[in-house]
Amino acid sequence: MNVQRAVLAAAVLLTALAAPVHAQAGSASSAAPAPASAQKIGVMNLRQAVFNTAEGKQAMAELQSQFAPRTAELEGLRKQIDDLQTRLRAGERTLSDDEKARLVRQGDQLTRRLQAKQQEFEEDANSAQSEVFDRVIRKMEEVMTRYARENNFTLLLRGDVNESVVIFAMPQTDITQDIIRLYDQAYPVRAGSATPAQPGTPRPQPPTKQPPPTQKPPQR
Asked: Is the overall model pTM greater than 0.70, yes or no?
């Protein structure tokens, strides 16, 4: 009888000791944080967004018009160089050495002039385009921030061709068109403004073909 009582007392004691352990385990389980929900990430092409807004298109159309005379000047210089090359080739056997040398010198002068003006053109065009980009992007930042908050985005990434921080993204993550639409609503262009340029990221472009080397007179 004494042995049975001792066994029963031991069982009761073990049960009492185990109860707090189970309670603590249950409490810890209920307090564990729930798995984090999936992050919502958006990708956009900033350059495409800037230059495809109505304001961006208008500004680039104005720049194209502004730089048109300089583009024509560069094309005129290139034509003069091409004409000199044609004269030298056609007169290989008929022109005097003095005339060939004169045409070569004239071609060298025109080539140096073209190269200097083309470099100046590109620097000015890049600067003007950067001013447009900076002006629009300062206002677009507010649009992007509001859009991200209202649509519960955790992160927005830049997906430009040359300045991308994205290796791969599903098409449905691209919010570029949404930002363009919201920007145009927030900053509409004035009626009667310059005709917008075509979609894309236009910029004033000089002739890209490099001037051919001036033909030298044959050596005797």
From this structure: no
Cβ(17)–Cβ(130) under 8 Å? no
Q: Are 58 and 192 in contact (CB under 8 A)?
A: no
Helices (H), 91-194: 97-150, 176-186
Helix ranges (H only) for 32-96 are 46-52, 54-90
Dump pLDDT digits (tens) for 73-96.
Answer: 999 999 999 999 999 999 999 999
CA–CA separation, 193 and 195 (whole Å)? 6
**What dihedral angle (degrees, nearest 10) is formed by the CA atoms of 176, 180, 181, 184?**
170
* pLDDT tens-digit map of 9-51: 333 333 343 444 444 444 444 444 444 557 899 999 999 999 9
- In angstroms, the CA 82 to CA 215 distance is 11
Give the span between the Cα atoms of 101 and 104, in whole angstroms. 5
Residues paired with 41 in a beta bridge: 155
Report CA 58 to chain centroid distance, whole Å: 18
- The token pair at 105 is 């010198």
Report the alpha-carbon distance of residue 112 to residue 122 in Å, rounded: 16
Residues 6+ apart with CB under 8 A from 82: 212
